[in-house]
Amino acid sequence: MPEPILSIVNVTKIYDSLKAVDRISFAINPGEIVGLLGPNGAGKTTTINMILGILEPTHGSIEILGKDVRACGSDIRKHINFAAVYAHMPANLTVRQDLYVFGLLYEVGNIREKIRFLLHEFDLERFADTKAGLLSSGELSRLNLAKAVMNEPRLLLLDEPTASLDPSISQLIREKIKRYMLSTRAGILWTSHNMNEIEAVCDRVMFLSHGRILLSGDPKSLPAQHGMGTLEELFIAVAREPLCLEHEVGI
């Protein structure tokens, strides 16, 4: 077995008396897309922020490429990236300028050539000199994703990357992410409330509730294992009746 790209062991995050994340453990292997699912407030974004090093776990360990995030954060950050529909690029810079700034931050080599490739790959050439604040939601999503892959990350974190996008743009984004994973064997952690999307792209899913992983498995077979017809029905059950599911799986 190859070494996991991401390994999380018994990670807990406590804010005062609130336990936002409660002893979660999982790994992501090269070439694997893993869905992190759950209702609002389940702990998904807190988990992503701990992986990024924005937040520090109260307990437990997070390793990326075999290195502890707390001890080797600056080295690790060169090999990870992030995209979310709510994480907009600086609005007063043009698309080209935004990519150039982030290329410098990520120490991307041949940066101008890389930007030309990304503008073409994400159909942004005609917007290269347009300020990011003037882009549509779909154009911004393509820009966010171009930024997220410009350093060719080994670990890509996607927090609701297609939220509020129309089906055509969402499909385009999904295709580009899957193509990136196949060409690089990167590991991807993907959060979404769109269960059809998750079933289409993810090799494995984990359901979070109140900071705990209740269920995990293949998104195509997991619902039937718990008496549900669809992944969306299972999501609703996790959101509404987590205690019943905890009892079922023996947590």
Task: Report what the structure shows.
The structure is a single chain. The protein contains 10 helices and 10 strands. The chain is an alpha/beta fold. It has one domain: Rossmann fold, CATH 3.40.50.300. Strands 6-7-8-3-9-10 form a 6-stranded mixed sheet, with helices on both faces. A hairpin with a 2-residue loop joins strand 9 and strand 10. Helix 3 crosses helix 4 and helix 5 packs parallel to helix 6. The longest helix has 18 residues. It is globular. The mean pLDDT is 90.
Structural class: alpha/beta
User: What's the CATH topology label?
Assistant: Rossmann fold
Total of domains: 1
Number of strands: 10
Distance between the first and last residues' Cα: 28 Å
Overall helicity = 25-40%
Question: Ranges with pLDDT <50 over ≥5 residues?
Answer: none
Query: Radius of gyration over alpha carbons?
Result: 18 Å
Percentage of residues in DSSP E strands: 15-25%
Query: What composes the largest sheet?
Result: 6 strands, mixed
Name the CATH superfamily assignment: P-loop containing nucleotide triphosphate hydrolases
H/E series, N to C?
EEEHEEHEHHHEHEHEEHHH
What's the CATH architecture? 3-Layer(aba) Sandwich
Number of discrete helical segments: 10
Strand order of the largest sheet: 6-7-8-3-9-10
- The CATH class is Alpha Beta
Average pLDDT across residues? 90
The dominant shape is globular
